[in-house]
Amino acid sequence: MAQAVDRDTGADTGSDIGAGERPSMSLVPPASRSIHGRDAEIAVLGDWLAGVVRGDGSRCVLMGEAGGGKTSLQQLVVAAADAGAATVLTAGGRELEQDFPFGTVRQLFDGPRGRRASGPAGVLAARLDDARGRSMGTGDTFALFQDLYWSLLDVADQAPVLLVVDDLHWADEPSRRWLEFLGPRLDGVAAGLLLASRPDEVARARWTAGDVTVLDLAPLSADVTARWLTADLGAPVSPRVARTVAELTGGNPLLVRELVQEMRAHGLGPDVGVDRLRALLPSGVRSFVLLRMASLDQRASRLAAAVAVLDRTDLPTAADLAGLDPDAAADARNELEAARILGGGAGPVQFVHPLVRTAVHHQLDPTRRRRLHLRAAELLHGRGARADLVAPHLLEAGDTDTVWATAVLAEAGRQARRHGDPRAAARWLRAAAARPDAGPQVLLEWGETLAAIDPAAAVQPLSSALSRAGDGVRGTGGIPGATSDGAVTVRARAAVALAQVELYRGHGLQAAESLLEIRAELSDDDPVAERVDFQLLACGAVSAAARERLAPWRRRVVAERFPAGVRPGWVRMVAATDALDGAMDGRPVGEVAVSVSRAIHGLETATDPAVAGIVLSLIGLAQLLVDDFDGARAVFDRLVQRTDRDSLADRHADMLAQRASLRLRVGDLAEALAEAQDALDLADAVGTTSSLLPRAAAVVVSVAADQGTAPLAYVLDDIDPDATAFRLLAYSRAELLLAQGKNAAAAEAFEAYGAMNLRLGWSGAASPWRSRCATALRRQGVAPDRSRELVDAELAIARRAGAPRAIGVALRAAAHLRAGSTAELLAEAVTVLQDSPARLELAWALADFGVEHLRSDRRADARAALSRAHDLAVECAAHRLVAQVRPALLSSGGRPRPAADRPPALTRSERVVAGHAAQGLGNRQIARALFVTEKTVEAHLRHAYRKLGIRSRNELAGRLPAGD
């Protein structure tokens, strides 16, 4: 493999490309002569394909009505790409397979062309196979998208890749989402995406946004139609005939072609009369089809009807449905191909165009059509076909007493759900639930599926499942961790799902009440009891009202502690919850450490990685709040790496948000802001909403307060007073008000935050709302007694807990209120914070201490304290503190230390990318780990090289700043 040289600087960027020259190709003019009126489009497609071959991958979208020539243009490009030795993968949306998740993508990678492709192409289909047997959430789907993308790039290393998708409007939704995901990531890759879709407002908005070549295939003009007729009929036609043909066909190339065929079949020449033409084509393609079908024998008509019902199929299945023996079916197929109803070739049996299939299907008598679809379902089911291939025929058949129909529809829903298409799953499960023999289990699954896409709509089926399920109705039902050894009650499962929906609809208290009622019906050893308990803890974590209601239950479960051998996951969860509650409530650091140890002991042997991840997250937050920054950093780094490695993008965003909180707490403002923004951006890309994202938004606002800037408005909006997670954002908003000098509003906001915490049972000083509120009151010159009361309480709580940061913050606030003890309290604050990693809080304490020395005319002591405060503030990127310290430092006779003679600082992204490169990772590995494109990695490395004055990644290790 050759090493790619950076195109702008010549620097070695370390990306791997295939050796040798890329093949050249073009759209050969002779091949385009049968495509009338599309010369301009063909020229654009030629240029686009040449760009793909050069490595400038992009999308091209053909928009046109059915029969408008999209497929012909795609075939032209495919022929040119084939001739140029490119890897060409093709697929087409199918009307009856829109609810088959990843069906279109599977055609691309597992169709004849995909199977023939050399190298890693076969791996792409295997990626889809890996996903078939597991449930896919948002993060799992994103991970699969990433996997397919990087495997595609491996294929593109061997030769340029052309992905061609026809009839995109009929593609299944997961495939369409992946194609959307892929499009913007082709820049700098030798891969092109050629799509064809019928035009409508939704399709245009979805497929033509961004950097994309769009070709709108307009109807053919009368002049083009005239040239076409002249070429095909061998003599010029009159303008009147050309205008009539254009009018009758609407300028649709397929209809023009069909009309020419009909004229030839009827011996009509260029001088045909207009009335004769109108009689030949009274209503478009349907008339063509009906006229041709009328001339066929009964066997051909029956086979055509069978193929219309089955869509693209094999001849034996179509013959069975048509009631024909193999020889008769083969003769009928030949007759239909000769009549240009079916396409030719030895492959699957299919119509020459979707319009023709639609015409044949629609002209069937409704009763016969339903009967054929029912028979098709029976045939496919009898042959063991997948449920999602049988189910569409059951829907077309309408009401039927087929005993296995409910099971097939429900299984089709489960398949779609496993494959990451909840909308298709909901459609199948709704159809299954509507059948008279559907039980509460199907209602439950339908409701659980809806909960992921339309929570409000999920309430009705979940409520119905809950009411219809008796206490004795049991079944494992696919609950994670449930087996036949421990049956799961449908009623309890419905209650959990309904609680999840209601909780995030703002009905946390109702959800908790319902779960408590169900929990009373379950024994502790019932497998679903733990799931109910987990959901109860979730209610208390998300909803303030639910937390208050659940206080007695929470105290009991924390105190009782189930034996580890019976419910080890639950024991760790309770211990981790206790640790976080203890940290929030201001318990001594040692007590919190005991709960942390209990939660983490033996965690690596936990069988449920989801439980382990939640426990670690809670532990990390507890450690963060009691100033165990090293422990918290180890936990958060571990979680970030785990979610990165497993491509769990939504969870990765959560973990970045938590680590951003740690960076904020120790004073790494630039890192905190970058990581919080990464979390928000990644969550937006994945389309997830998480209870931890307000934490990321809170970091953005707090950094703005410390840097004297204004955060984007979106991080200040929509604070739900019942959501406990939004407390963090409420606190940050109050800090911003204080930094902006809006003291009255800040005091009110801090009081409201404190009242919420106290109501929830959290009286600790981890978030120093009391001292911040006292500061706001002092600046207004009001309520001195209240200010002293708040600061004294916070200092006592902080001393009892023993967390240095909280003690230092409280001492600083007390110093401003106790005139006779100011220097003493500030000296203690500096001493307490001296060995703490909370550098920014130390900088504030030093700044106050320096100013106090200056007031006492101790200029040397003032200069030393202020100089160190200034340096720390600069290191932390705390611009507001720098601006405040600088005048005092100058007054003390000091001078701000000049910046070291060093190259321009790397941005966070440049440091991260360069750090990976220094460890020996290639560009593709780095891009995959960071959820970015290789081109982005190349750009960051190019900038890093320029700033560091190097040309090769081999020089990185010796030039990166410490810590990178």
TrEMBL record:
What InterPro entries does this protein's entry cite?
AAA_16, P-loop_NTPase, Sig_transdc_resp-reg_C-effctor, TPR-like_helical_dom_sf, Tscrpt_reg_LuxR_C, WH-like_DNA-bd_sf
- Keywords assigned by UniProt, alphabetized: ATP-binding, Nucleotide-binding
Residue stretches spanning the membrane: none
GO biological processes: regulation of DNA-templated transcription
List the residue ranges of the region (Disordered).
1-32
Q: An example Gene Ontology cellular component term from the record?
A: cytoplasm
Which domain of life does the UniProt lineage start with? Bacteria
| Family annotation (SUPFAM superfamilies) | C-terminal effector domain of the bipartite response regulators (SSF46894), P-loop containing nucleoside triphosphate hydrolases (SSF52540), TPR-like (SSF48452)
**Biased composition regions of type Basic and acidic residues, renumbered to the chain:** 1-10
Signal peptide segment: none
Q: Where is the HTH luxR-type domain?
A: 899-964
> What are this entry's molecular-function GO terms?
adenylate cyclase activity; ATP binding; DNA binding
Reply yes or no: does the keyword Isomerase apply: no
Instruction: List the protein's name.
Output: HTH luxR-type domain-containing protein
The organism named in the record is: Nakamurella endophytica
